[in-house]
Amino acid sequence: MSQDTTVKQGEEGSAPLTLPPDPSRRFWIGATCAVGGVAGAAVALPFVGSFAPSEKAKAAGAAVEVDISDLRPGELRTVEWRGKPVWVIRRTPEQIAALPALNSQLADPNSERPGITPEYARNDWRSRKPEIWVGVAICTHLGCSPTPKFTPGAQPSLPADWEGGSLCPCHGSNFDMAGRVYKNKPAPDNLEVPPYQYVTDSRILIGVDENNPA
How far is the C-alpha of 12 from the C-alpha of 19, rounded, in Å? Predict the structure, then answer.
């Protein structure tokens, strides 16, 4: 039969004998509870640590590689980088040829406003290569996502000589096929070009460039 520190068994069959109150015992019980409370606080620390960013959250800021080998002319692919939608568009020869002719209709045709366009994308096609455009699909007005409108010609809320691009459905800002905003529209700037570079002719790494190493 097991023994208990608070009850001392007598002879077999006899009633248990109860020890008189011991002040020192009360002290040790209190001390034990205090130590237990400290231990409980220490144990709680790892749980607080669990509120640190998850691996998925950390990965949200990592570079994103995109395979464009099967992206055909006139097609768009959307990927996520840092929680933002990024468009990768393979422009047709006609869309590329139309870009310089639109300069007079655009608010910032040469992409000179700071913080929006990397140096390597400050050209007529606003990209590293004429056929591929990479841009953040968030309107610079109030953060809506534009709608692709690649088909040329007159359409509702678009210029009569529309050459293709995108339309912000929230407040009507128009962007050309290089993400440049038209004049007199709510959006103050062109669509952002994120840092990116080519890994191969058919693979792009978004989030990394000369000024933003991996």
Answer: 18
155-202 pLDDT, tens digit per residue, is 999 989 999 999 999 999 999 999 999 999 999 999 999 999 999 999
Each residue's pLDDT tens digit, 117-134: 999 999 999 999 999 999
Domain range spanning residue 194? Answer: 58-206
Residues 36 and 140 in one domain: no
pLDDT at position 97 is: 96
- State whether the Cα torsion 105-111-117-122 is positive or negative: positive
Looking at the structure, do residues 90 and 165 belong to the same domain, yes or no?
Answer: yes
**How many structural domains is the chain composed of?**
2
Exposed e or buried b per residue across 124-148, where buried means at least 16 C-beta atoms within 10 angstroms of its C-beta: ebbbbebbbbbbbbbbbbeebbbeb
**Residues of 52-81 as b/e, b for ≥16 C-beta within 10 angstroms?**
eeeeeeeeeeebbebebeebeeeeebeeeb
For residues 90 and 42, membership in a common domain is answered with no
Residues 175 and 202 in one domain: yes
